[in-house]
Design a protein that fits this description.
The chain has 148 residues and is mainly beta. The chain contains no helices and eight strands. The strands form two sheets. The chain has a four-stranded mixed β-sheet with strand order 5-2-1-7, with no helix packed on it. A hairpin with a 4-residue loop joins β1 and β2.
Length: 148
C-alpha cells in the first residue's frame, strides 16, 4: 500500500506521506476501569495510627473480564508530604494497597496517578465505578478523597 497525502477522517493502518501532529490512536486497545473499590480503616497503637486498606478490582469494558497485570498507582497526602503507592493486579484482577499513617498529622487525601494498563488495554478513568459521590472514582470531578 502506498502512503496517502492527507490524513484520513477515520483511523486506518495506512501510513501518510506527511507526518501528522497527533500519534495514531490505538483503536484495538480495550478499555479497562476500576469496577470495584473498597476501603477499610483500622485504628492501631491506641488511636495513634490508622491503617488504610484499599482493594481495587480492574475489569475490561469489552469482555467484562478481570484484568491481570494492571499497575494501580495512588498517592496519599498528609500535611505537606505526598507518598506514592502502587500494586499490580493479580490473576483475579485485584490489587490491595495498604498504608499506615499517624493520626496526629491530620486527615489523608487519596488521589490516583493512573493505572498502567497491560499490553492491549488502555485505562479509562471515566468508566470507573462511583465510590462515594455521583461521579466515577478518580475522574476529573472526583479526583481525590479525604479520609480522617
Amino acid at each position: 500500500d502506498e502512503p496517502t497525502n492527507e490524513p484520513s477522517s477515520e483511523p486506518t493502518n495506512e501510513p501518510t506521506l506527511i507526518p501528522t501532529d497527533e500519534p495514531t490512536a490505538n483503536v484495538s486497545a480495550t478499555a479497562i476501569f476500576i469496577q470495584k473499590m473498597t476501603m477499610s480503616k483500622k485504628v492501631q497503637s491506641k488511636g495513634k495510627k490508622h491503617k488504610f486498606t484499599f482493594t481495587f478490582t480492574i475489569k475490561d469494558k469489552k469482555n467484562k473480564k478481570k484484568v491481570k497485570g494492571a499497575n494501580v498507582k495512588l498517592e496519599y497526602k498528609q500535611g505537606n508530604k505526598t507518598t506514592p503507592v502502587s500494586k499490580v493486579t493479580n490473576n483475579g484482577g485485584k490489587a490491595k494497597i495498604i498504608f499506615t499513617v499517624k493520626t496526629k498529622k491530620g486527615s489523608v487525601t487519596l488521589s490516583s496517578s493512573g493505572i498502567d494498563a497491560p499490553v492491549g488495554y488502555a485505562y479509562d478513568k471515566d468508566l470507573n465505578e462511583k465510590y462515594s459521590d455521583d461521579c466515577p472514582a478518580f475522574s476529573e470531578n472526583c479526583a481525590s478523597y479525604v479520609f480522617d
